[in-house]
Amino acid sequence: MTAQRLTRQTVAALTVPPGKLEAFLWDAEVKGFGVRASAGGSRRYVVQYRVPGQRATKKLSIGAVDTLSVDEARRQARTLLANALTGNDPHAEKAAAKKAAAVTLGSVADAYLKHCEVRQKPGTFYQTKLHLTKHWAPLRGLPLHKVRRADVATRLTELRDSSGGVSANRSRSALSALFAWAIGEGLTEANPVVGTHKPAEEKTRERVLSDAELKAIWGTCRNDAYGRIVRMLILTAQRREEVGGMAETELDLDAALWTLPAARAKNHREHLVPLSAPAVAILREAPRLEGRSLVFGEGAGGFSGWSRAKNALDSRLTEAGTPLAPWTLHDLRRTAATMMADRLGVAPHIIEAILNHVSGARAGVAGVYNRASYAVEKRAALDLWAAHVAGLCEMREEAPPQASA
């Protein structure tokens, strides 16, 4: 059929001859641009092209005639044909775009979570999964490459208003880590989180509890799992998750020693924690349940329900007439370290050893030797700290356990 300039009228007049499945009408203005009519009645704009170096001629649909004007279809055809002349196959690009559209934030997040599950500690993985599956749920259906910085910024504002600034900060970090991983996997080219503002500015906490506050917390603890955990946090100066996930196999109560395995330590180094007499007493009194390998809690990950238990403790403190200014369980660790230094004269490097911090003095080969030599000093410091706490809290102080360092 002779080419003629496509217009709305010529497109509408195109018919399929009897016995044929389709018919084409080619534009006289742009070679390779045309319209295809099917025997079923549909009409679509198309381009016909050949990429240099390839023998085959290809056709590609631009869009339905009832959704595109002739002028817009012609403009798109010019772009596609120009790309073909430079060696870029429009058909391959369309297939790639379709494939990219199938790679959504949600599908990549699921793959990333599988990557994290075997690399992160259970508590960390739980938080990562929470942020990526719940907090970023409204964006999970978007193609990964179409997640814009504006989308991220808008959602961060929503999260700040609904969950608080700190939680929104954590969600921001989780999404940024996902995109960094996706870039490394070749799934996308850019991280849209970069350049967004943190929903909240976080200050380094410096809260150190007073003697009266420490006494109030100790005295308000009940003889339950959470109460024992809080008191162990005070006496050992260790981290919440480390105490909450304590396993029976980590304890040698006869030797008054808790060995925190590298797999559970924040710095991935085995950590020896000497146990003072009050700490041993707490652990001996903790009920043992048949079939449970952990000292506290009922689940596989140790104690859970931290927020609920902390709120209940704060309520009891208020009811007892000793309400505290906002505080966290981590403040107990900071308080122990500060008081050991300021009140008891414990050397800074011994406090770092108790906290399982790795400083220059404890890194590398030196750390291997110091690990053993500091055991005696750590035990002496924690016994001294326990005696200080006993004096504050008016608890009966037992004789220090007879145990080797």
Task: Provide a descriptive summary of the structure in words.
The protein is an alpha+beta fold and 405 residues long. The protein folds into three domains: 8-100, Integrase, DNA-binding domain (Double Stranded RNA Binding Domain, 2-Layer Sandwich), CATH 3.30.160.390; 105-184, DNA polymerase, domain 1, CATH 1.10.150; 211-393, Orthogonal Bundle (hpI Integrase, Chain A). It is 49% helix and 9% strand. The chain is built from 15 helices and seven strands. The strands form two sheets. A four-stranded antiparallel β-sheet has the order 1-2-3-4. Strands 5-6-7 form a three-stranded antiparallel β-sheet. Strand 2 (33-38) and strand 3 form a beta hairpin. Helix 4 (105-117) runs antiparallel to helix 5 (122-135) and helix 6 (149-163) packs antiparallel against helix 7 (165-184). It starts with 7 loop residues before the first helix and ends in a 12-residue tail after the last helix. Mean pLDDT is 87; it is low at 360-370 and 396-405.
- List segments where confidence is low: pLDDT < 50 over at least 5 consecutive residues: 360-370, 396-405
The tally of domains stands at: 3
Q: Any guess at the CATH architecture of the largest domain? A: Orthogonal Bundle
Specify the structural class: alpha+beta
**What amount of the residues lies in strands?**
5-15%
Query: So what's the oligomer here?
Result: single chain
Strand count, sense and barrel status of the largest sheet are:
4 strands, antiparallel
Q: Describe the strand arrangement of the main beta sheet, using strand numbers.
A: 1-2-3-4
CATH homologous superfamily heading of the largest domain: Intergrase catalytic core
Morphology: elongated
Rounded to an integer, what's the Rg over CA atoms? 34 Å
Please report the number of helical segments: 15
Overall number of strands: 7
Under CATH, the topology of the largest domain can be stated as hpI Integrase, Chain A
Domain Tyr recombinase: 204-383
Pfam family, one: Arm-DNA-bind_3
Keywords: DNA integration, DNA recombination, DNA-binding
InterPro entries: CB, DNA_brk_join_enz, Integrase-like_cat_sf, Integrase_catalytic, Integrase_DNA-bd_sf, Integrase_DNA_bind_dom, Integrase_recombinase_N, Integrase_SAM-like_N
